[in-house]
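Researcher: Sequence recovery benchmark, item below. Answer with residues only.
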């Protein structure tokens, strides 16, 4: 199964959708909801399979529940709607709606235009509303479970073909998203230091981190792992656009690594590489490392770019994404970047219209 569309309602001040099939660029002015759309997607992705929506996780961190509800009102519902393709039952739609104030939740799954199950929290338990033959049956697991087949474990011995199909579809949908989402936010240029510890606890195997904090560690993998050799020249072409002839990672002292670049025949710390290097390297390295068929979300793609450099960045990113069947979704406020992206084959959605 493959996630092809994501929609959200009631998250912060945003209602909207993003397509996740191919390359999408979301264009819009400040305060149009570009970042919030990606944050909502990241919030759901770090919550899938869990017993509740995780406001603090590997992709995004919100310190209080009020931070995600419209106007900070915990009684206002938030709805996530996901559309999948490629399943055994055709197109699949999964809907999850919740409020924080009273811990209320409702879930619904449909396949091929038919509802497989609908569940709502009544009192402390979940109650099945559909399918009709098991309507009223209580569930004995948390009704807040997110995209998790265990939410359909009932207290009584009831069964139906729809429930069996729903469990299989939820399992397939959940596992299709395992290690298949990466979010690089607009703070990716802020996490750079002159050197980093060689060992990092909880570093993602194929991710640079939402703030690009593991870019240097992962850059060393891209340079040395045979699986990524074919993409090393693509990375070099991007850096060559600004006169950087070589980039690498080395041990600078016991237990610490540092990055370096060669410009004009001279070596310099990558930390001094400027905004282009600090903002673009996490994007390119993440695209290279991402597992095949996964989703890569990039906020403020124009960060550190100029109109002259845009095509030299986007073209290799698109080639890598195509070779790995990645879905790209990025945001920008720059109309000139949207023009370049459109010319290269991105679908551009304008939130300002």
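Model:
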């Amino acid at each position: 199964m493959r996630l092809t569309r994501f929609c959200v309602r009631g998250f912060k001040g945003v209602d909207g959708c993003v397509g996740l099939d191919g390359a999408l660029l979301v264009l819009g002015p400040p305060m149009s909801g570009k970042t919030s759309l990606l944050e909502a997607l990241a919030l759901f992705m770090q919550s899938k399979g869990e017993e509740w929506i995780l406001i603090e996780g590997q992709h995004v961190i919100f310190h209080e529940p009020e931070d995600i509800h419209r106007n900070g009102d915990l009684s206002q519902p938030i709805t996530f709607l996901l559309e999948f393709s490629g399943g055994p039952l055709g197109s699949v739609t999964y809907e999850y709606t919740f409020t924080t104030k009273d811990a209320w939740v409702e879930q619904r799954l449909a396949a091929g235009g038919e509802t497989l199950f609908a569940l709502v929290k009544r009192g402390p338990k979940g109650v099945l509303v559909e399918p009709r033959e098991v309507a009223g049956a209580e569930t004995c697991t948390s009704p807040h479970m997110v995209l998790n087949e265990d939410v359909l474990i009932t207290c009584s011995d009831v069964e139906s073909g729809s429930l069996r199909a729903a469990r299989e579809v939820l399992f397939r949908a959940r596992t299709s998203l395992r290690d298949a989402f990466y979010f690089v936010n607009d703070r990716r240029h802020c996490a750079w230091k002159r050197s980093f510890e060689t060992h990092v606890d909880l570093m993602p195997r194929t991710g640079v981190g939402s703030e690009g904090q593991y870019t240097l560690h992962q850059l060393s993998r891209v340079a040395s792992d045979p699986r990524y050799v074919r993409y090393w020249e693509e990375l070099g072409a991007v850096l060559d656009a600004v006169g950087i002839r070589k980039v690498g990672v080395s041990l600078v002292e016991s237990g610490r690594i540092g990055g370096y670049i060669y410009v004009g025949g001279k070596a310099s710390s990558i930390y001094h590489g400027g905004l282009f290097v600090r903002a673009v390297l996490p994007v390119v390295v993440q695209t290279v490392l991402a597992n095949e068929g996964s989703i890569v979300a990039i906020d403020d793609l124009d960060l550190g770019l100029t109109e002259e450099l845009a095509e030299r960045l986007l073209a290799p990113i698109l080639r890598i994404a195509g070779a790995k069947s990645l879905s790209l979704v990025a945001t920008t406020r720059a109309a000139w970047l949207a023009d370049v992206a459109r010319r290269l084959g991105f679908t551009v959605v304008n939130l300002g219209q």
